[in-house]
Specification:
Layout: H1 2-16, E1 20-28, E2 39-42, E3 47-50, E4 56-62, E5 65-72, E6 79-85, E7 91-95, E8 122-126, H2 127-132, H3 138-142, E9 148-153, E10 157-162, E11 170-174, E12 177-178, E13 197-204, H4 208-211, E14 218-224, E15 232-242, E16 247-257, E17 261-272, E18 287-300, E19 303-317, E20 335-351, E21 354-370, E22 395-409, E23 416-431, E24 441-455, E25 459-474, E26 479-496, E27 499-510, H5 514-518, E28 520-523, E29 528-531, E30 539-551, E31 555-579, E32 582-603, E33 611-624, E34 637-646, E35 651-663, E36 679-692, E37 695-704, E38 729-737
Amino acid sequence: MKYIFNVFLLLAIPSIYAQNNLTGTVMDKKTEEPLIFTNIYLPQLEKGATTNDEGNFTLTNIPNGAYAVVVSIMGYETLSQTITFPTSGDLILALIPSAIEMEEIIISTPFHKLQSENVMKVERKTIANLKAKGAVTLADGLTTIAGVESITTGVSIGKPVIRGLSSNRVLVYTQGVRLENQQFGDEHGLGLSDAGIESVEVIKGPASLLYGSDALGGVLYLNPEKFARANTQTADASYNYFSSTKGFNTNAGFKASGERFKFLFRGSLAEHADYNTADYRVTNSRFREQDFKTGLGYQKSGFKTELRYNVNHSKLGIPGELGEQTTSKTPLLPFQEVTNHVLSSKSSVFFNNSSLDFTIGLLYNDRKEFEDHHHHHDDSVDHDHEAHEDLEAALQMKLKTLNYDVKYNLPTLGKFETIVGIQGMSQSNTNYGEEQLIPDATTNDFGILATSHIHFEKSDIQIGARYDHRNIDVFSGINKDFSSFNGALGYKTKLAEIITFRLNLASGYRAPNLAELTSDGTHEGTNRYEIGNENLKNEQNFQADLALEYKSEHIEIFANAFYNKVNNYIFISPNGELIENTPVYTYLQEDANLFGGEIGLHIHPHPLDWLHLESSFETVTGKQKNAGHLPLIPANSLSNTLRVEFNTKSIDKIYAFMRLNTYFKQLNISNFETATDGYNLLSAGFGGTVNLFKNNLDIRVSGSNLTNKTYINHLSRLKSDGIYDIGRNINVGLTYTL
């Protein structure tokens, strides 16, 4: 490996010092007038510029090779063009006017293309868009994305569900590395703040080819905020208030970049009391979260690197029975105290017409759970527990993870773009608490992959294969090995100028996690005694995904359908026994099938380009081989939105919306679930950007569940207690940028 790396370095030497400049002009294709404030961005190099008053731009220190140049501005179609350096002469870029939203580069797929160029359909949303809808937390905001739901414990804890699959079947990436935070637990949340995250991308379906085990159901890829443009600096601060929880979140950040070095940091704090319903406050749904992110980057021609660090500390009340109605923000017993550390290093070396990318992640998760009977005082103790320092954790687990990802982008050969790579992970879990749910263990992963994108005049094909091996060594004596070979094939073509057809076929796998293999104890957060099954096999799946898109100047229609066959699907089920008066649950396996899809319509009629009418419907059905239904399958839902967007002389980017979300009855339930009634939720909001003291102030006001409907989502973990989800909530947000 050392010899190979030295060879790569020697090959890089001629190109590290090769420096090119790119100059050009951006104009309106119809009028040929220059376009000012247009963004020009090279995603592979993470370099950008903005056009001046004459529509001109300059980018410097570009290494030899072929790179995509992406040009975007509101009111025009995004342009992506590959340019080979060295090049000569000024570049003339002509944009076509359009009322359709700007496209962005998709980072979660290997070739970093615009969605319209991508073979795999990927959903992308900005965090600003999720905040505009009044999302209380990051997990809450993700549920507004088609095909994504959340298993919730109140408003503080949410686990993403993609097309009916959740837990370890959905992989989360942050700062370019896979998130490892004891995610096997139903009541274990993301442990991430939306502060300092720019956007989220959702791969719906098996992505094991790109990411290995645990991406069987899909991937949530969180893109961190970009560094400032070269030789610029910026600062911002924001504040959000939420009426239902009497809570707030606030954050502030600063970033600056020189010609080569760049730096950023951001800190945030959130505090929420128990959320309110039309009838009561949900006792102990309160929580507090602190988050800090920082990054350091360095870039020169032929090489770029960045180092990012994130620490997130949260104290989360675990709601159960209803009790005293207060607006205190200090969690009662039981509660979780979780600290996540994520340190990531991401670097690229650019050769002549090829590049080497390598990413390393160090993650440390410290999870503590506190219960009523684990303190040093007698029954006369004040149960408000304003100070928790005297408590001992009933359950404490520390998870330490090292993961790495090395990919080599081969030189383009005719129509072929090819990537080969290796990925791996080394992980240890250690118990420190009085109780133990899963034993101490180590996990080691290794995977090797190759994938190619083949370009034709009107079509694209993507093909790839991967091999993985995982070893789980449990200190109690269990040692298990799991291996899998997986492949993927995708095809995209234009059936007509405005109709795009995509077909993706992919297999995926997931090795059983520690909880499923080795659990033996009471899981207080779920009120059940869990017993693992060391004889569990790999989950192995195959999914077919079909997507059709019709996109004209004023109408967009999409239809996505999928069929997902999962062999050896792992699920937990009660066996009818009791241990210490707690119901016993065991892990079982059965083949399963999931099918469904999403359809949607977006109309922005001429000449009312500021008016948007949006409608979408999503459905998923999950069945076991024995014809029983899978648990935790989201109900079918329909969303209808009326939205307006336009600019005025005094307010930029003003918008307003009204949305009606309809959730249908969920009658397709497993043996230990109950049916859930349907309901409608009405939301609305408005916002805009005003100039205050020569800087931008973004103002957001939104309201969710405006009719104060009492309802329970089928995926709420409080459903068995008959506790309602959040009632009417008014959100006011301000962001000031310097």
